[in-house]
Protein: Putative septation protein SpoVG
Amino acid sequence: MQITDVRIRKIEKEGKMKAVVSITIDEEFVIHDIKIIEGEKGMFIAMPSRKTAEGEYKDIAHPIKSSTRELIQNLILQKYNEELLHSEAV
Structure:
């Protein structure tokens, strides 16, 4: 599995959510609405989710293996940090 594209839409408002991301896998499958969140222990991603009738949020799409989630998170956060550095330089 290769992540072939990462598109980041930064959120300008103050708050914990910093960006919304779409990734393309193998130039054939897209996952939209991955969120970059600033938590107490640093940045992390939240996969797309939906609120249930009970008020809980359940992921709509997510990696099965923790190693895959880590790979996706590391790549997204790397791209996000690159965009931050680029926007500060401009």
Q: What stands out?
A: The beta strands are 3-10, 17-25, 29-39, 42-46, 49-51, 57-59. The CA atoms of residues 6 and 23 lie 5 Å apart. The longest strand covers residues 29-39. The mean pLDDT is 94.
